[in-house]
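User: Sequence recovery, please. Input:
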């Protein structure tokens, strides 16, 4: 009996170009360029030739290539060129300071660092390896990416092959290097199709950073489905609205602040738009209600780098009918709500533990990997609950618990109460050191509201120990590049106001 083939057998563009070479693969919204899958395949060959040459000279096995390249179409050839050459791609956050980037490079020890014109000088200064640029180099020590060498044949892939390493945002601790395999990425793209649907003329807009999974995922889905990715190099509400209209975008990934800014501009979604995947942080009900009023097809989603993007996603009617839910888990994904190691009943709160083919095999750090996994799978550190039909609510972080005077306070519950106060648009609650109470509850709030009014509202609805003792009104909550509230920065802002 013939042994079954473990698909994919090679990089996704190799499979795609053999099926639909003429279909548009990537549209550059800023440069008025369109690449077909045949064009993309040629560019992937160019990248794979360079990657193969550098990794061969460095040993050729278990090699990594890092990229210091911002959101732009060239991300696609880098991603699939790494897959074709059989190396791991490590996209780096271009907004980090050199010292942090240097430390991350030291952790992965890449055979090559790819940069662009804007990052050439920094790349050269922090790299202890050859540096190549996707643009014409202008700095000594940096050479063009293209090389006079025949491209390698696409390597044979296994689902367990490590394909990317992504560093988490690090909102409460040092960023962790997350290892994701070919199997993780393909399973995520497949599960997304079952939840969101796929149409032949789909065009997904990428305006999120591509050094995070939310920015990379559309490229993988596009190659798998044979659909198109539209790339906008940076988000701007008025310009993004124009791009969506002019390029017939059918789907877009946004974080809550992006969507709020679009709606504040009076944006009306084009008729082509079918999906607004809203992630990167909790979407408050007021924002979901605005989407209903503006006929925005909002799909609140819950995902993590460690699960290669989506864990659960709610379709619009589910989001409207069940306030606050992120929907049921995607196909293949198991979510268990656990308290003290035991599964919870529907409605009971606990830590969310995820298992399935999208879940990372682990971190770069073996100790962190061992600490993150248990008998039910990967411990997310998020708190939540499910209803009888499996719909999921995420209510906060396990490490957001504040112990004040011996009482436990769930920061997410306090923040949710504050958001219900008149004039408040958003809030984050943190614990800050206190000599008398150990920790005290503090809040950063946005909106047109006075701290005293927020405190008065809370006093009638929360236990006395839950009412924030420190409240500061700010213009915007500090966020990471992926849209998550930066809790450490929030804590610093609160402490600095005293």
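Assistant: Recovered sequence (498 residues):
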């Amino acid at each position: 009996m013939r042994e079954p083939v473990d698909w994919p057998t090679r990089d996704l563009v190799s499979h795609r170009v053999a099926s639909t070479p003429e279909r548009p693969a990537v549209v550059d919204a800023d440069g008025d360029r369109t690449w077909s899958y045949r064009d993309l395949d040629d560019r992937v060959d160019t990248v794979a030739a360079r990657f193969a040459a550098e990794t061969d000279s460095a040993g050729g096995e278990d090699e990594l290539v890092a990229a210091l390249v911002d959101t732009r179409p060239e991300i696609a050839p880098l991603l699939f060129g790494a897959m074709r050459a059989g190396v791991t791609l490590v996209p780096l956050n271009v907004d980090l300071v050199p010292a942090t980037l240097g430390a991350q490079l030291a952790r992965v020890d890449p055979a090559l660092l790819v940069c662009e014109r804007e990052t050439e000088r920094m790349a050269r200064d922090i790299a202890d390896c050859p540096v190549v640029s996707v643009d014409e180099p202008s700095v000594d020590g940096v050479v063009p990416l293209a090389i006079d060498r025949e491209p390698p044949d696409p390597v044979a892939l296994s689902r367990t092959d490590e394909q990317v390493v992504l560093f988490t945002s690090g909102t409460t601790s040092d960023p962790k290097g997350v290892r994701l395999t070919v199997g993780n990425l393909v399973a995520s793209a497949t599960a997304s199709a079952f939840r969101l649907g796929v149409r032949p003329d789909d065009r997904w807009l990428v305006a999120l950073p591509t050094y995070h999974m939310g920015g990379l995922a559309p490229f993988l889905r596009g190659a798998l489905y044979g659909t198109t990715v539209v790339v906008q190099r940076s988000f701007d509400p008025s310009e993004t609205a124009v791009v969506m209209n002019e390029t017939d975008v059918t789907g877009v990934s946004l974080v809550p602040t992006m969507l709020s800014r679009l709606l504040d501009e009076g944006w009306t979604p084009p008729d082509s738009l079918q999906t607004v995947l809203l992630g990167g942080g909790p979407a408050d009900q007021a924002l979901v209600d605005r989407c209903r009023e503006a006929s925005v097809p909002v799909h609140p989603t819950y995902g993590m780098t460690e699960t290669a993007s989506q864990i659960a996603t709610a379709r619009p009617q589910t989001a409207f009918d069940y306030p606050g839910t992120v929907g049921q888990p995607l196909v293949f994904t198991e979510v268990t709500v656990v308290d003290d190691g035991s599964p919870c009943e529907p409605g009971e709160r606990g830590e969310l533990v995820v298992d399935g083919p999208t879940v990372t095999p682990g971190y770069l750090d073996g100790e962190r990997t061992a600490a993150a996994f248990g008998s039910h799978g990967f411990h997310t550190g998020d708190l939540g609950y499910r209803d009888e039909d499996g719909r999921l609510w995420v209510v906060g972080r396990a490490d957001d618990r504040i112990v004040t005077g011996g009482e436990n306070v769930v920061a997410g519950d306090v923040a949710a109460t504050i958001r219900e106060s008149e004039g408040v648009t958003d809030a984050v609650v943190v614990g800050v050191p206190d000599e008398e109470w150990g920790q005290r509850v503090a809040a950063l709030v946005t909106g047109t509201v006075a701290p005293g009014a927020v405190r008065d509202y809370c006093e009638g609805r929360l236990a006395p120990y839950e009412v924030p003792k420190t409240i500061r009104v700010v213009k915007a909550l500090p966020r990471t590049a992926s849209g998550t509230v930066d809790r450490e920065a929030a804590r610093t802002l609160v402490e600095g106001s005293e």
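The radius of gyration is 23 Å.
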